[in-house]
What we know:
Radius of gyration: 31 Å
Number of helices: 15
Largest sheet: 4 strands, mixed
Strand order of the largest sheet: 2-1-3-4
Shape: elongated
Number of strands: 4
Number of domains: 2
Distance between the termini: 23 Å
Amino acid sequence: MHAVWLIAKNDLALRIRDRSVFIIGIIAPLALAFIFNLIFGGGISDVGDTITLHVGVANVDGGPVGEAFEEVMDSLVADGFIELTVLDGRAAAQAAADDGSIGAAIVLPIGMSDAVIAGQDANIEVIGNVDAPTTTQIAASIAEQFALGARTANLSVATALATGVVAPQDAFALAAEASAAPPIVTIGTVKAATRQLEASAFFVAGLSVFFMFFIAGMSITSMLEERREGTLSRLLAAPIARWSVIAGKSLASVIIGIVSLTVLVIVSSLIMGAEWGNPFGVGLLVLGAVLAVVAIMTLVGAFAKTPEQAANLQAIVAVTLSMLSGTFVPFAPGGLLSRISLLAPNSWFLRGLGDLAGGVAADALPAFGVLMAFAVAFGSVGLVVAGKAMQP
């Protein structure tokens, strides 16, 4: 083991002097994750127990129907689903939606109450911000639900008057009772069946493992470079086991990978506000992911004859596994791609972090177990194949 550590120490010193390892291991994944989060993660920000929608209301009507709508919005505000902005009119609603201060505005036009009471058509206008389609859709659904309630009240009154069930003077009381009926659709907090990793942590995790493939590949490529330069034969002539050379170079990659992922977790938490979950569980997943990736890259690189061939093969494997895991373009669970992704260690790393979100360290154990199985399976075969490739 002393020889393994000496070889790892020497490789670490060489890679630290070659500052590209800092770019590949820290700067590149963090920069790309920040860009990906800006592009794809804007609609997933501010994740919490509830979703708060920024909606404005311009009650130009001012009548009883408009007041009833304001009561509905006030109840949503009290439940924490809506952050309400009261607007003076349609022009103010349009301006607020355009500048992004609200996600959508609901405009109740003048004369709406008179039209509804008279049984005539009345339109509720929803003005949405182009960058907030979800808020706009939900605001439109709220308006449609309220309009449905108003139509139900009108129909109830008209039917009762036509059949003589109630007198005309009781029509308004009946309309109020119909409007107070339980809504067909309600908005409430629903506990998710599965946990989901937030956007910033997802992109940092996925891209860090992607670049980890290239860091892990350095162990076998450096050995091939030493074989070409003739230094490997002198190393093999030393009184050490052949496997210790491979183990030492792999250990250097493992140390760099763990340090790299740890720094990315800490930096992304401080700069991007990423939430990773239980630190002990995250540590287990980081260890498992690094060991699995190093084992895979050792096996892949061992089939190459030159450092250039090893780098090309490792790049193909890294991109393929990252695409299968949904690192670049996340895909919905349950489909064919979701099942195929089980072949990629990246996917298990992301799954483990997702299970860990809001949970305890034990939730990371299933994914950690699979990652360690990857490490043992590929690592044991990789040591054998790489040992044969060490022949000068």
